[in-house]
Structure formats: C-alpha cells, structure tokens
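Posting here for the record, re: FE2/S2 (inorganic) cluster.
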Amino acid sequence: MINPYAPIEAKILDVIDENSAIKTYILKPSEPLVFDPGQFVMVGMPGVGESPFGVSSSCFDRDQLEVSVQIQPRGKNTTALHNARPGDTALVRGPFGNQYPMDYFKGREVYVVGGGVGMAPMRAVLLALLHEADQYKRIVLRYGARNPELRMYKDLCLSWETDPKIDVVYTVDVADSSWRHNVGVVTSIMKPEDIADVPNAVAVGCGPPIMLRFMVPLLLKMGFKPEHMYFSMEKNMSCGMGMCGHCRIGTYYVCKDGPVFTYDQISEFPDAWT
Ligand code: FES
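Prediction output follows.
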C-alpha cells in the first residue's frame, strides 16, 4: 500500500489549457494510484510545495490521473505547476478523503450540478457514471460557468451533447456571440421536471459557496432528500490528513471526514456555505 506521507514521482504526460485560468495535468504516477470519485490528491513540483486537487479523471483508468489547477490564488506551487511542461516530473501523494457512494447510486437517477472549477470532481463522477451507464437509471448534468471562455472540459462537454447516456444542459452567466446554450446562473437551468423519481434520486454538486447556497433550497424544493444531496466541499486544505485544522466545517475536517458530505451532515454549519 502507498504511504500517504511519502510522495511518489509522476511524469507529466500532457498539459491542457482549459481556459486562461485553468490547466489540466495528465499525470502518470511511478506506481498505480487507485482512487475513487470524490477523492483528492496532493500534487506539487519538487522543492516547491504541494497543494490539494480533486481528481478529475476516471477511476477506471488506473495508469494515469488528471487534476485541474487554477492559477488564482497565485501561490508558489500553482505558479510552478502552471510553468511545468510535458515530460517534467511532479510529486503526488494520496489519494485522500472519502468518495461518492457509487454503489448506492446504482439504480437511481443521478443529478449532477457543477459550477466553475467545481466541475473538476464532477468530471470524475460523470466519467465513472458513464463507464457503467447501464447501472444507473439516468445521468443528468447541469453545468454553469461565468462565461464561455471559462468553461472547463469543452471537448468532453461537446461530446456529451450528443451522447444518449447523459442529459446535459449548459449555461453561462455572461454570453458572447459564439454561445448557443442558456444564459443565467446554474440554478436557472435546474427544473423539477429534470428528475422523474425524485424521492429515490441523488443530487451531486460542487461549485463556489454562493452557488451551493442558492442550489440547496432549490434541490430541497425539487424534492431531494437531505441525505440524498451530496456535495464536494472545498476548504483551505493544507496537510490533507487531519493534522493542521485548516479545513474545518463545523465539527468536521474536510480532508479527513470529507470532502464529500451530504446536506444533512453539514446543513447546520454556517462555515460550510461561506
Ligand atoms: S488539511 Fe489539515 S486538517 Fe485538513
């Protein structure tokens, strides 16, 4: 078993410019790193430090993993990562945290809502769902970004538009002349008719706290049970192992008890939504 304290080398196979603020790194660890959707890894450049990133690739691909890195807030490590090139060596530790209960999702409608860079862990969930699409009753994605340029995974999102296994609707807050989908915040494309059997459906979401704040009452109004509303929470993670206390939400540590929480676990903690 891999020691979570000891980083392993990972060759950067490719670097994809998602947009002006985010790059995705395709990494090949020197030994297989087995993870589940929702988990995160610490990634850094040698001698610079490390930062936590939700894995955005498919858990069924055991040879490589992908993380998407936002340049802001500009730190030493994110700057070093943004300067890294294919062929360079990064360091990876993990995986850490809990995961989405994919087995529990089987036989249910799964309603995925992603906003901004929160699409990274949602991509891992969606790729896992689509890998075994016949196991799920329905797979739905509602994805919002600030503008068309800031969208992530553009080619994949385009391919999903014609994929009968997934029902997608996209929106941006501010459109340009190239945009042919919806305009408005992500909650404007979440409709009760999106889900047929809501008492049994599960919702999965990740995005900025403000988005989650508006999304929660809407999901409840749509009829989702609090224990069926799952969120990937993002807090200031540092050690990634429950040691530093930087990532608290109420009585929980996001790194150790999360990052995946159900609404009924965290609803009473104000710091979850700020
Ligand atoms: S990141 Fe250190 S306790 Fe969670």
